[in-house]
Each structure stands twice: as C-alpha cells, then as structure tokens.
Amino acid sequence: MGNTLVKDGFEDLKGEVVRLMQEGKIKAEQAFMKETLQTYHGIGRLLDHYLLARKDRAEYGARVVLRLSQEVGVGKSALYHALAFFRLNPNFQTSGNLTWSHYRALLTLPSTEEQKTYEIAADEHGWSVRELEKQIKASTLVGQAPGERERTVLRPDQNLPALRGQFYTYRLVEGAPGEYEDGGSPEDLRLDLGFGTHLAWPLTGVDNVHPGQYVISKGNPSGDYTFTPGSGRAASFYTYFARVISVIDGDTIWVDIDCGFRVWCRQKLRLRGIDAPELPTNEGIRAKSFVARELAKVEFAVVTTTKPDKYNFYLADVFYLPEANEPGSVLTKGKFLNKEILVKGLAKRVK
Fold first, then answer.
1. pTM of the entire structure?
2. Which of 149, 169, 175, 341 could join 190 in a cystine, given CB atoms 3.0 to 4.6 angstroms apart?
3. pLDDT tens, 215-234?
4. Are residues 218 and 277 in the same domain?
5. Residue 250 sits in a domain of what CATH number?
6. How many domains does the chain divide into?
7. Which residues face 257 on adjacent strands?
C-alpha cells in the first residue's frame, strides 16, 4: 500500500500540506506582531491625548500610569513604552519587519533622532532584536555625518572611520639638498601639493618654518596667498576638490584634482579600506555599477588621500553629496563612498 501511495502522488500531497502549515504559521505570527504593535500604538495614543489635555497638572501623568497599571493589570513600563512608541511614530504604519521587542530596544536610546536612525536601519536590513541591541551597544550609528547615518549597517569590527581633512593645507619640504639646524628660510622650502608635486611659492605670513611643518594657504582677489601654521592629524591634510573622470571598478576611480595654486593633476585613486570583487565577475560588475550610479549624481567630489598602496595607487577617502554646490558642505556633511560600498555588501573591509 505504501508504494501505491507514493505512485499516487502522496509525497506531493505531504509537501503541500507542510507548505501550507508553514505559511499559515508565518502569517499567524505576522498578524500577531502587527496586532501587538497596533495595540500598543493605540494605548500610547490614548495616553498621549489624555495627558496632553491635562498637561498643566504637575505629576498627574505618573499618577495616571500608576492607576492604570493597578486597575488594568498592565505593567507601568509597558504603558510608558506605549506612550514613547506613539510619540516616536504618531502616524505609524507597520512594515512587518520590526516587532514590539525591536521597539522596546529602540526606546532605550536617549533621543528621537537616534531612535529613528536605528529604526530605519533595522527595518531596511532585517536586523533581529539581538542584532539591533548589538548595534545600539556599539553606537555604530552615533556621531556620523547625516548623509551616512541611515545607511550604516556594519559590525563594529568592520567600521571604517572617515578622514575628513582640511582644504589647502600643505607640508613643507626641502627645495634643495641641505640640513636645517635652526629652522629654514621660507625661500629654501617648497609646498608639497601631493602626488609628488612640489611648488616654490613665497610663504607670506609665516616665519621660522622648517621641513615637515604644515601650513594653511588662503587666497585673495589679487591672486596672492597668505599662510598660517597648520596643526592636527597629518594623515588628513591632503584633502582636495576633485572631478570624477571615470570609474574603473568597485574600488578604483580616475579623478581630476585641484591641488591649489591653479595646479591640477589627474590621478587613479584606490578607495581606502575596502576591496571590491574583480571584474568581470557579477559581483565586480555590481560594485562598479553602484559606484558609477552614485558618482553620476554629483558634479564634483572631495577626496582625502594617503600613502600609495603596493600598486603605487594613492589611497583615498571619497565624499559626495547630491545637489551640493559648496565643497565645504561636501567635506563635512557628505556621504562617505568607501563606507557606502561596504554597507551595501559590495566590498570587504581590509586594513
């Protein structure tokens, strides 16, 4: 009889029954999660409206929550969470990805801005409650430029801090062989514009300078420049306005760089800290296409460069901001392309 059932399609029947049971279980869980969220949102709305109408009565809210907790049999923390949940999302529409446990974790954050930031990231990337709690504990989304916040989904060990440097800041180098014991004369030194380019220029405004010192230049309408001493992280000084010429692959681009003093140079830059798949693999094509799409949104970018890699390409942090027309805004508020690529899972983190 067993063989007869197999021949008659019993296995197909069993498979369909199992499928329907699994689908039904998933739908039931989703429906339960949705109703739970809507229930707590509704409780929060009622509390908010009730308390708002009596906001002039000091300490009244605490007494209301305590009395409700005692007479309805709902914990005080649940009522406070419901109130905070409503205030976080007054016009809440569930996406089906986040549960009430997710929102309880979000409500531990100190500000509405941080709560919304983590909510968007958790919803977009399907974080479990445990993963969300790890991200919150690691402060992964805190302290970043607005253009980066909503897209950061990296584990703490994958994080890539951006080098947001200073425009028109240069290291002084020797102009001719020799040693400087008591400091040099401005006429003896050159400005290192980066990429092996040294410029002889009158260093108006600085005295007692020496090789290795950094100076900041400032132009004036007459075409002259004055200088002041620079300070800070040497690794972040080589920061430039640049126009993208082409995208080579997911981590390499050609750019035309404004080095200052009307000096431009074309460079092939390797994006620092990441390694994208090689072309012509499908993964490599996807990474290159993403970079090309992102950079096509802007007329210029800002780059901070560091030492060349083993292939003699300069490593760069690239910043861009659609619709921005001022380089300073791109530098301080722009998206960090290197991290955008990591966040999308299109490259791996390398040291």
1. 0.55
2. 175
3. 889 888 887 899 988 776 55
4. no
5. 2.40.50.90
6. 3
7. 242, 265
